[in-house]
Design brief:
Layout: E1 2-6, H1 13-27, E2 33-42, E3 51-59, E4 62-70, H2 73-100, E5 108-116, E6 121-126, E7 131-135, E8 153-161, E9 164-172
Parallel strand pairs: 1-2
Antiparallel strand pairs: 2-3, 3-4, 5-6, 5-8, 6-7, 8-9
Helix pairs in contact: 1-2
Length: 180
């Protein structure tokens, strides 16, 4: 992650250092923030005048923007950082909620017909007799690619691919069908 300043002279060095530390600690252990731009400027359009600080961040799948205008640039920076932190936590919370949502039961059932574990893919023979390609990235819902074995019953959702049927999702078969 990189942090860029536009008109940093509006803020003193200590304020900039504190801002950098807050942003770096927010990014620590995560790879979802890429490029942060902090712009400090005098805002003539605000009815009372003042200093505006705008934080713009390129994040995974979106752009985050937090801005505050206050008579003092340091106060505007602190409040913009607070707003930015709330946006980052909200973004991460939403992503975690989507990940934790209950995975619906796959509409099709099949058996792992061929597994090429060293190459990261395999084929499933569906109950309807169709042979479906799957990649390790399609495996989820409590099932792990490295733990799959030929002959194992799985649930899957598939679509037409460039070279035939391809699984979008491969997961555990319903309990009453496992080992069948």
């Amino acid at each position: 992650m990189e942090i860029h300043w536009v008109h940093p002279e509006e803020l003193d060095a200590r304020q900039r250092d504190v801002a950098i530390e807050r942003i770096r600690s927010l990014a620590h252990g995560h790879a979802d923030l890429f490029d942060v731009r902090i712009t400090a400027r005098t805002n003539e359009h605000h009815r009372h005048g003042g200093r505006e600080v705008r934080i713009t961040c390129d994040a995974v799948g979106k752009e985050l923007v937090a801005a505050r205008t206050r008579p003092d640039a340091g106060l505007a920076l602190d409040e913009a950082l607070d707003a930015f932190e709330r946006q980052v936590w909200r973004m991460r919370h939403r992503r975690t909620q989507r990940r934790d949502e209950q995975v619906p039961e796959p509409p099709e059932l099949g058996v792992v017909d061929e597994l090429r574990a060293d190459e990261g893919y395999g084929f499933i023979l569906t109950d309807g007799g169709e042979r479906v390609y799957f990649h390790r990235n399609a495996v989820g819902g409590g099932l792990e690619f490295d733990a799959l074995a030929e002959g194992e019953c799985v649930g899957l959702d598939f679509e037409a691919g460039r070279e035939g049927l391809q699984a979008r999702f491969v997961g555990l078969a319903p309990p009453h069908r496992r080992g069948a």
